[in-house]
Amino acid sequence: PRNSLIDALMFRLSMYEGVRKDPNIFRSRRFMPRSMKGRLVWRVENVSHPHHNPVYSNEFRDAFDHRWLVLMDAHGYRERGFLSVFLVVPDEEVSNLPRTAQFRVTMVNQRSVLDSVSIELTYAFSAPNETRYGCLRFMELSRLKDPSAGFVVDDSFVCEVQV
User: Fold this and answer.
1) Which of 35, 79, 82, 155 has the smallest C-beta neighbourhood within 10 Å, fewest atoms?
2) What is the pLDDT of the chain when averaged over all its residues?
């Protein structure tokens, strides 16, 4: 028992030393527990100001340490009037294909979590030209932006992605 306590303290000390040397160490998820990896909670702000281009999330990693991005198009990709959402393999990761992802995208209802909207998808990313997959018609923009619906609060909405 004494050795395990010393090992735990040494591990904590080494984590502290890493944080001192690299203040972004936790942001990079290097020390994030395996159960927490693969989850992105993304707050998209300034919803009332239309984004003219698709918006990319910050990069995040799954439990297998694969890197991912989320792409949202508020104009609808090929489907006007809908929010389109895609899981994307970053360019630097294309050489690591093929890989299969089972993922869930949730538009969080900020007033009532039970009214959140989710979709679950599975896709085998297998070729360099197949680096994104998702839903063209994830949610109607009129429903998303309806103030009484509860998705947009304080000019922002929250999207959660679990890979």
Assistant:
1) 35
2) 80
